Amino acid sequence: MKNALLFILSASLILSCNNSKNTTTVQPKELAPFSGFDLAKINFKERVYPLFSKVLMVDDERYDSTQIARLDFEKLDYISMRLTGAGMSVPKEKYGYQFESHTADSIVRFDSIYFDHVKMLTKRDTSLVAVWATGDYIKTKTRLDSALQHMKNKYGEPAAQYFISSSFHICSYEWRLPDRIIQMETSKGFSVSITSGNSKPEPSTYYKIEMIIIKKDELQKLANVCTVSTATYPELKKLGWKDTLITGDYIPHSLVPQYKYDSLGIYSIDRATEE
């Protein structure tokens, strides 16, 4: 009897160990504060519509479950830019839908980097194409540097990197994986607060991270439909339009001509260390 009991205990321990090794993190089916949805684990097969069932924002209005059930998808048509003077919008032809969340604490994450606002772009069949996310204010430069170092440790040195603007110290870093492009944009801002009992304003610095993830084989297609030029919009010739502009939150800086063809080094990441 004693030997039988020992055998049962040993078997249970083996099963327990095996189960712990086989455990995988299951992505939540709905976004919510502290949901734990990990953008680093997306496979572009996610069911986007159900993900936003409790957090959807449409035209700056938060939708409840009743409104979502009778949602008019035309309201989600993706528009990267409105050409007000020409009475047109970009893309010219309908591309897909954009699902946007309201702001909520840690609504998604990328490994240990947390974000409080997320948008997802889909094609007309609601298959996922790209994700845009922005994070809550980061209080220290050390935490910002740690997040960037995490990305470098995981994916190596960026394939493209730019110093976008000195005004808010905006820097952009891009990693090219076999199936996706990941861009991480960092910036600095300033705020002023007045505490109780102290009427003197207290200035402080904060940092932000903005991230985009786009399916690699959809990137050029999206860039093409989001390009504004007189070739794609002949009507703009009457307005004196001469530039070529690629619009939208999901387009990495490496496709934008002013950064891509920067022969003078104006946007060189090396300039970021001069500040």
Characterization of the model:
Residues 1-24 have low confidence and may be disordered. The protein has one domain. It is built from 6 helices and 15 strands. The protein has 275 residues and is an alpha+beta fold.
Task: Give the structure's gist in a few sentences.
The chain has helices spanning 2-22, 48-51, 65-69, 141-155, 216-225, 257-260; strands at 56-58, 61-62, 81-83, 88-90, 96-101, 108-110, 113-115, 117-123, 128-134, 160-165, 170-176, 180-193, 202-215, 227-228, 245-246. With 275 residues, the protein is α+β, with helices and mostly antiparallel strands.
Number of helices: 6
How far the N terminus sits from the C terminus, by CA atoms, comes to 76 Å
Mean pLDDT: 84
Shape: globular
Write the layout of secondary structure elements.
Elements: H1 2-22, H2 48-51, E1 56-58, E2 61-62, H3 65-69, E3 81-83, E4 88-90, E5 96-101, E6 108-110, E7 113-115, E8 117-123, E9 128-134, H4 141-155, E10 160-165, E11 170-176, E12 180-193, E13 202-215, H5 216-225, E14 227-228, E15 245-246, H6 257-260
Antiparallel strand pairs: 1-2, 1-5, 3-4, 5-8, 6-7, 8-9, 9-13, 10-11, 11-12, 12-13, 14-15
